[in-house]
Amino acid sequence: MNDAKTALGQKIRAIKKQHGWTWAEIAEKLGHAPVWTCAACLGQMSMTEEVADKAGQLFGLSAEETALLQDIPYRGSLPTAVPTDPLIYRFYELVQVYGTTWKEMIQEEFGDGIMSAIDFDMTLERQPDQKGDRVKMTLSGKFLPYKRY
What we know:
The protein is of the alpha+beta class and 149 residues long. It folds into three domains: 3-68, Orthogonal Bundle (434 Repressor (Amino-terminal Domain)); 80-110, no CATH class; 112-149, Cyanate Lyase, Chain: A, domain 2 (2-Layer Sandwich). 50% of the residues lie in helices and 18% in strands. It has helices at residues 3-19, 23-30, 34-41, 49-59, 63-68, 86-110, and strands at residues 113-127, 134-145. A two-stranded antiparallel sheet has the order 1-2. A hairpin with a 6-residue loop joins strand 1 and strand 2 (134-145). The chain starts with a helix and ends with a strand. 13% of the residues are buried.
């Protein structure tokens, strides 16, 4: 894991909080989707030089920190195999409970393959509900069939 990128992500989060910015506002300034922008700022994506320069100016980063935003990350930022943060653990729980169902249904529809996490989009939105607001996430990944050779 890249400790420097993780530390930089924490610094960016602190600056974001200090200014009262949202990820949507930052994303608009950088020209990317909020989910991707958040992932890149937290060290899980690499920025182009142009986007890193914009981020460096926005957050008041040093030249070294701006360059670090362009580094290819070591992806996977959780410190343990089973996440302990309750919100993140719920996603782990979803995979445990529904993982085989997702696999079965995706392969029934598309065949033997996977959903790409590289050619991938995700949106997150608040969905008002009288019983309490709901989190609506939409995941969209390119289907990649296994090659037969």
